[in-house]
Amino acid sequence: MARTFSVSDSVIIEASPSLVYQHVCNPALMGRWSPENLGATLSAQQGPAHVGMVFDGHNKRGALRWTTRCTVTAAEQDELFRFRVHAIGLKQPRLRGPIATWEYRFEPTPEGTKVTETWTDDRRSWPDSVANLFDKAATRGSTFADFQRTNIRITLRNLKAALESPSEIR
Question: pTM (2 decimals)?
Answer without folding.
Answer: 0.93
